[in-house]
Design a protein that fits this description.
By secondary structure, the chain is α/β, with parallel strands linked by helices. Helix content is 32%, strand content 16%. Helix 1 packs across helix 6.
Length: 354
């Protein structure tokens, strides 16, 4: 018998309300009951929607991998309600993790620390460390509290696809593979958390994200390193988001050095193009925008604004039956590092350091 589609349950929580409305509390209770019995619930966070299961329940976590089609070598981030829960899942709690958690949680930064026996191997891809995060979303934290369980929660989409920033993105990607979607509105940050390794003498960023290196250095009072380009790729991954192809729309995506020339070439070949650009005032862009075969999408000039719209825009363009998505190359600066990381993994060819 075919499994039905999951309910999408709206769960608003006004910013000026200390407690959620009764309907939202009921939605949280319903989601918590599913988590406790080993089911899968899509939940909102400030970054992207996550596909949540009880992190202590090996079979429930296995359901995440099945629903996403995710390789077992790709570890999961575990979401916690507070620092006390995080420390209960860590064999050791390094000073760097303590400082980041005290100063930057709840927030879009994940700490990698030695794991305790409470975390099954499947969560960490068999590794000796666990990635922990306290999300800056009251709905997610309240669900963790009510379920009384840390939540393993990668992005709520099929593996390698564009991450979801709305409840409907989740439904489009996962359909009847999950039990419930908790709709908390659109995600504000729009891209996944920064992941840092706190197990080494110098903290290292494993995955760039909304929390910048400068912010981390200001909090830690010491240098923070970028990913090691010479790292041994045969060892167990400590962070998700390391696959060469990831975050990719169905429509082929490219980031050409000269997007105006590339769009002109594609249009001349009869292709239909979606073009993300921040140069909408350029006369050459306006000229090309007059073609019925190109959809020009104005994008913000700042990295935070760009990030907040990126995945939602890619989801929308995937519905337009286009032949190609073209994106202007982002600046080669630290502020744009996370955007360049996501686009480089989503593109049909790697994005070099131009």
């Amino acid at each position: 018998m075919r499994r039905p589609l999951p309910d999408i349950v709206r769960a608003p929580w006004p910013a000026d309300a200390a407690e959620p409305p009764s309907a939202t509390s009921a939605a949280i209770d319903r989601a918590a009951a599913i988590i406790r019995r080993g089911g899968l619930v899509a939940i909102p966070t400030e970054t992207v929607y996550g596909l949540a299961a009880n992190a202590r329940d090996e079979e429930a976590v296995a359901g995440i991998f099945r629903a996403k089609g995710r390789p077992a070598t790709n570890p999961l981030i575990v979401h916690v309600a507070d620092v006390a829960m995080a420390r209960s899942l860590a064999r050791e709690w390094p000073d760097a993790a303590a400082t980041v958690a005290a100063r930057l949680w709840p927030g879009p930064v994940t700490v990698v620390v030695p794991r305790s026996a409470a975390i099954p191997d499947i969560v960490t891809a068999g590794g000796d460390t666990v990635a922990l995060r306290c999300p800056d979303h009251r709905l997610a934290r309240r669900l963790i509290e009510v379920a009384d369980a840390p939540l393993a929660a990668p992005s709520a989409n099929r593996s390698e696809a564009v991450s979801p920033t709305t409840a409907h993105h989740v439904l489009e990607s996962l359909g009847n593979r999950i039990d419930l979607i908790l709709d908390g509105g659109s995600c504000l940050r729009g891209i996944e958390s920064t992941v840092i390794d706190c197990t080494t003498a110098a903290v290292r960023i494993l995955r760039p994200g909304p929390m910048s290196r400068q912010q981390l250095e200001a909090v830690l009072g010491s240098p923070v390193l970028w990913p090691d380009a010479d790292a041994d790729t045969t060892t167990t991954a400590r962070s998700p988001g390391q696959q060469q192809r990831h975050y990719a729309p169905r429509t082929p995506l490219e980031i050409p050095d000269d997007p105006i020339e590339r769009v002109s070439t594609l249009l001349a070949k009869g292709e239909r193009v979606g073009w993300l650009t921040s140069r909408v005032d350029d006369p050459r862009v306006r000229s090309l925008a007059g073609s019925r075969d190109v959809l020009v999408v104005p994008m913000p000039h700042d990295p935070d604004g760009f990030a907040s719209l990126l995945y939602a825009t890619l989801h929308a363009l995937d519905q337009r039956q286009l032949d190609r998505i073209v994106i202007d190359p982002p600046p080669v600066t630290e502020e744009w590092r996370a955007i360049r990381d996501r686009l480089g993994r989503a593109a049909v060819s790697p994005l070099g350091e131009r």
